[in-house]
Amino acid sequence: MSCRDPFDFDIDVDISPLLDRCEGPTFIDARWYELVATRDNRDPAVQAKLEQVFENIMLRAQWSATQRRAFDRRRAVRVPLLSRLMANDGSHMTACDISLSGLRASGRPTAPIMDIEFKLPHLRFPVDARVEVVSYKDSPVLPLVGLRFAWIDRPYVEEIARYVAGKRERQLHAA
């Protein structure tokens, strides 16, 4: 027989409202919130380590939630985009088309995950994003790489949506 206090129970905190387009709940053990709370008598090095572990747990939960998203990339509307794409290491590629989920570019990727910068025709400033290489077709003439947005600020997503919708509308009226 257990001698536990009947009011001593574990509570998980649902962080799904903090995550974008999350399907279903994403839980973090509430004890982490208690552990990471700063205390006057705690060594700063221990506090920093606890905060680092908590951040890793949050990132893992966020990654787990992203894996549950049911986004069918074949449904993503792609429109042409001719733009120079600069990677963080200084290499260049050329964007061929864009959708809300990513880009297709001609060129050779330099890493599986890259920070990139590219321009949309109606914006005066470049769009910054982190992308993941999801496909690569090597060719001596025109190698093609599929890039999925792994991280991009919401205002950029809204600008991309505006661009895709405008291009799509023009294509439909031209047909």
| CATH fold-level topology of the largest domain | Thrombin, subunit H
Per DSSP E runs of 2 or more residues, the count of β-strands stands at: 8
Strand content: 25-35%
Q: What's the number of domains?
A: 2
User: Percent of residues in helical segments?
Assistant: 25-40%
The name of the CATH architecture of the largest domain is Beta Barrel
The biggest sheet, with number of strands, parallel, antiparallel or mixed sense and barrel status, is: 6 strands, antiparallel, barrel
DSSP summary: helix tally: 3
The stretches of 5 or more residues where confidence is low (pLDDT under 50) are none
Radius of gyration, CA atoms, in whole angstroms: 22 Å
In whole angstroms, how far apart are the ends? 75 Å
Question: Can you write the helix and strand succession as a string?
Answer: EEHHEEEEEEH
